[in-house]
Amino acid sequence: MLNKSNIAKIALCLSIAWILGGPWLLTQTRFSILDFTHTGDIGSTIGGITAPVIGLVSAILIYLSFSAQIDANKIAQDEANFRYILDEFERIKTKIKKYKYYLSNRAPEWGTEKGSEALITFSENIYDFFELGTKQWIYDGSLDDVYYLLSGYSIFIAEDKRLSLSKNQRKIVELKIWLYHAENVKKTCDKIALWTVDNPGADAPAYCHKAYEVKMLALSINYEIGNFTASFPSNNL
């Protein structure tokens, strides 16, 4: 397979062969179709024959050298991006793991839930409030917390598309996100997507506007994660 390294080796070998054999081939064999009797001394003749080839090969080697440096820089940048996005992934997972939701904001002593289970409980309580008209009290702070949590999660997903990564690195990152989402976040986003709070008017309570923003985030996240599934063998998300 011809790659830049092989091309450089071939060009170098051909140039050496030409430098060593070109003058002899053109002056001392039956293939000598040029008349050198009226040229300068042998050094000038050889220089005139080989100089264009040497110049061309030098240009090719310089180009290949710059190309190799560009490729090396891209590999280094991809590796740095890969480490960065994996670190960000761990940070997002830690934030979700530390998320707390009070089972009753008016009575914190009733206990709390943490992590993905807390997110599911939160989304179900808000769903019941909007859909079933329950007396579950809406706490704006909880909506704010989930909004910022999902915002960070959404931005992280977008980073995967923005950053330069090799094909294998991107597949690793997207598979990690896909699996984590399926196990820890998808149920929450699915439930939030069912909230019956659609584009509230200006006179609607503040929590309705915040709930609508959270719903739009959940829909966007599910859509972006759905785009990952084309690369994987299962479409169970």
Class computed from helices, strands and strand pairing: mainly alpha
The gyration radius over C-alpha positions equals 33 Å
Number of strands: 2
Count, helices: 6
| Overall pLDDT confidence | 77
Give the terminus-to-terminus CA distance.
Answer: 40 Å
Characterize the biggest β-sheet.
2 strands, antiparallel
- Helical content class: over 70%
Low-confidence stretches: none
Reading the helices and strands in chain order gives HHEEHHHH
How many domains? The number is: 2
In order across it, which strands form the biggest sheet?
Answer: 1-2
Task: Set out the fold topology.
Elements: H1 4-27, H2 42-98, E1 100-102, E2 112-114, H3 115-132, H4 140-162, H5 167-193, H6 206-228
Antiparallel strand pairs: 1-2
Please outline what is shown here.
This protein has 237 residues and is mostly helical.
Question: What structural keywords apply?
Answer:
237 residues, mainly alpha, 6 helices, 3% strand, rod-shaped
Please characterize this protein's 3D structure.
The longest helix is centred in the N-terminal third of the chain and has 57 residues, at 42-98. The chain contains six helices and two strands; from the N terminus they run ααββαααα. The chain has 237 residues and is an all-alpha fold. Strands 1-2 form a two-stranded antiparallel sheet. The protein is 73% helix and 3% strand. It has helices at 4-27, 42-98, 115-132, 140-162, 167-193, 206-228, and strands spanning 100-102, 112-114. It has two domains: 4-70; 99-231, no CATH class. The model has no long low-confidence stretch (mean pLDDT 77).
